[in-house]
Design goal:
11 strands; 8-stranded parallel beta barrel; two-stranded antiparallel sheet
Length: 276
């Protein structure tokens, strides 16, 4: 398997598909089964959320509490890893209407073993103070070349914080807001650390489209979330299912080449259709 950064930098690749919390339709989100489904349907990257247990183990879970995914109304990080793995996860994205499955809450190490050599991984830390520990785990597991770490880089203070972390060997993705008025300042800030990729938010799509060459010259690929969440604005999966050209297509034409989605199968079909 090629290095994550080399894959992203390849000008011949298709748009990359990121399965949000794994491909969770048919498997509990953030479970090993959801990672396996992401691999099976041909996603290129799987996004998983990382927390730390009461006894110091890194594990995979999005919410603060276990209520939605395991029916336990208590903070996940107050349990030991053994206690966490004694619980079963609910189907798909959880909730009272979902049945329990045989899937358990995985440790980060278990997830990295499944991912190894098969798919890239975006490690979304619920506490950025875990940066050094997660980076060390990735290096110890021989996983540094196929995962990324990310955090916001919108101010000098955030930039200085990133520089102070020991993420040697682990690809770093910045998260930034691009506006027409602030574009030059944002690019100058990012230029000091040269992230291989940037998860973007923007004021208008033209702000991105009109600066395609600037991003290319900086060797910085663009990642967008089209999730059915407030933060996605108008660029959502539900709208893309109705008119994919107006959502996924317009974003691709603007130069965005990495899409985090809850509809990885549908996005894959759309990409293949554009290529045909």
């Amino acid at each position: 398997m090629t290095h994550y950064k080399d894959y992203i930098a390849d000008p011949a690749r298709d748009c990359a598909i990121v399965a949000h919390r794994g491909a969770w339709r048919g498997a509990p989100e953030n479970s090993l089964a959801a990672i396996e489904r992401a691999i099976a349907i041909g996603a290129n990257i799987v996004e998983i959320d990382i927390r730390k247990s009461a006894d110091g183990h890194l594990f995979v879970m999005h919410d603060d509490t276990l209520l939605r995914m395991a029916g336990v109304d208590r903070d996940a990080e107050t349990f030991t890893m053994a206690q966490l793995q004694a619980m079963t996860l609910r189907e798909d994205d959880g909730g009272d209407h979902r049945a329990a499955t045989d899937q358990r809450i995985p440790t980060l190490k278990q997830a990295l073993e499944v991912i190894r050599g098969r798919i890239f991984a975006d490690l979304d830390l619920k506490d950025r103070d875990l940066f050094n520990e997660v980076a060390a785990c990735a290096r110890d597991m021989g996983a540094a070349s196929y995962v990324d770490l990310k955090t916001s880089v919108t101010t000098r203070e955030e930039l200085d914080w990133v520089r102070a972390q020991d993420v040697h060997g682990v690809p770093f993705m910045a998260m930034a807001q691009f506006t027409a008025d602030g574009f030059d300042n944002t690019m100058a800030l990012l230029g000091e650390i040269k992230p291989f990729m940037c998860e973007i938010h923007f004021d208008h799509l033209d702000t991105i489209a009109n600066n395609k060459q600037r991003f290319a010259d900086a060797d910085m690929a663009l990642w967008i979330n089209t999730l059915d969440q407030t933060g996605s604005g108008e660029w959502r999966d539900d709208k893309a299912l109705i008119d994919p050209d107006s959502i996924w297509g317009r974003l691709m034409d603007a130069g965005i080449s990495v899409f985090q989605t809850d509809r990885p199968q549908e996005l894959k079909a759309y990409i293949e259709g554009r290529r045909a």
